[in-house]
Amino acid sequence: MTQNYTQDINLAILPGDGIGSEVMAEVRKVISWLESNHALSFTLHEDDIGGTAYDRYGEPLADSTLEKCKASDAVIMGSVGGPQWDNVDYNKRPEAGLLRLRKEMELFANLRPAIVFDALIDASTLKPEIVKGLDILIVRELTGGVYFGEPRGIEDLGNGQRRGVNTQVYETYEIDRIGRVAFDLAKKRRNKVTSCEKANVMESGKLWREEITKLHAAEFNDVELEHMYADNCAMQLLRNPSQFDVIVTDNLFGDILSDEAAMLTGSLGMLPSASLGETGKPGVYEPVHGSAPDIAGQGKANPLATILSFAMALRYSLNLRSEADEIEFAVQDVLKSGGRTPDIIAEGCQQISTSQMGDALINALDQRFKKVA
Ligand code: NAD
User: Which among 114, 208, 239, 301 would be 20 to 30 A from 360, CA to CA?
Assistant: First the structure.
């Protein structure tokens, strides 16, 4: 929707490594399009993260970069990593930059939509009738649980045996704040939350179920809530994925279930994600895929996952829902028009490059905008 005043938006842009800079160039085209067609003005603060940051600053995330991110309205990231940094110290590796960014920005909620676009229905390994129209949102707790719980470590038992320990631990406030994110999102979607844990065998799961139930009764009883054991959820995602709207779960189960749900769509180059902290603080938006060193610099990368991540930033951090809708609809138009990057090529479609895909999207936005204007 066109507004009658100009909204100024500060974005931190971190292209990162490998295909990051190629796909981010296509996001910039979309940003320029929005500036030309809506009363929006973007200030872009570009910087390095990952291996490119290590080469420039000696750190995969420099303090000055982090400050820029914290001061922004949203962070749009490409991806990090590559074989040239394989021998760098563990705490200076590209991935360490990403982990630091998530930790320092207190991003406790990871949002991973799994959407099957009609034009790509054959890319899924499941039957078309099972995945048609699929639109699930997985909300994963990102800063707690077994990946961070103490005690942890590997202990030498002195008798030729060793013991590895990790601790699954959640406190009320952690369950409460992620539950709140899930219920709020469900209200803007199809109004259903499925909460997953293993309350049958884990005390932390029992607490999770009790706290989600309490929150639901106190503040969200207009949203449908169901509880499901995480192993059953893994099965149901393959058997009947359309039963789900929003799935909320802990860090470990979310890691696994979000990858499973993503693969229902069959195409890594199409998957966006968002990581959010407290309301009003900037979120980080990035594609699910990595830096794809095997195709970097060849114009083969699909930019749509990063463009869809930018659309999530418009929706969740910038409150520009109709602009986010426009971009998502334009992506569907592009896919229907038959121009495809190599990762999603199908019979009868024309192979196009990264930059041609960006141009095709701008063209689709133009067409839509003309229709509306
Ligand atoms: P990857 O996602 O980079 O690539 C897996 C396969 O998918 C490759 O064949 C690649 O060419 C293809 N692919 C990925 N994105 C694509 C796109 N947009 N368009 C077309 N094809 C695409 O995973 P990987 O090969 O396991 O990892 C490569 C590097 O990326 C590693 O250093 C890894 O640590 C890093 N990584 C980073 C992130 C992140 O930044 N969040 C996530 C995953 C992997």
Answer: 114
**Ligand 1 atom 31: the closest Cα is on which residue?**
81
* pLDDT score, position 2: 45
- Would you say the CB of residue 302 lies under 6 angstroms from ligand 1? yes
The predicted structure's pLDDT at residue 4: 55
Which 3-state string (H, E, C) describes the chain?
Answer: CCCCCCEEEEEEEEEECCCHHHHHHHHHHHHHHHHHHCCEEEEEEECCCCHHHHHHHCCCCCHHHHHHHHHCCEEEEEECCCHHHCCCCHHHCHHHHHHHHHHHCCCCEEEEEEECCHHHHHHCCCCHHHHCCCEEEEEEECCCHHHCCCCCEEEECCCCCEEEECCCCCCHHHHHHHHHHHHHHHHCCCCEEEEEECCCCCHHHHHHHHHHHHHHHHHCCCCEEEEEEHHHHHHHHHHCHHHCCEEEECHHHHHHHHHHHHHHHCCHHHCEEEEECCCCCCEEEEECCCCCCCCCCCCCCCCHHHHHHHHHHHHHCCCCHHHHHHHHHHHHHHHHHCEECHHHCCCCCEECCHHHHHHHHHHHHHHHHHHHC
Going by alpha carbons, the residue nearest to atom 40 of ligand 1 is 79
Are domains 1-108+279-373 and 114-276 of this chain identical in fold? yes
- Give pLDDT, residue 373: 66
Residues of the chain with pLDDT under 70: 1-5, 373
Going from the Cα of 296 to the center of ligand 1, the distance in angstroms, rounded, reads: 10
Tens-place pLDDT, residues 46-55: 999 999 999 9
> Domain map of the chain by residue range?
1-108+279-373, 114-276
pLDDT value for 123: 83
pLDDT at 265: 86
Q: What is the pLDDT of residue 279?
A: 87
| Ligand 1 mean position, distance from CA 289 (Å) | 5
Q: Mutate which of 289, 309, 345 to test ligand 1's pocket (most atoms within 8 Å of Cβ)?
A: 289
Q: Whose CA is nearest to atom 5 of ligand 1?
A: 292
CATH of domain 1-108+279-373: 3.40.718.10
- For 114-276, CATH number? 3.40.718.10
Q: How far is the CA of 290 from the centre of ligand 1 (A)?
A: 3
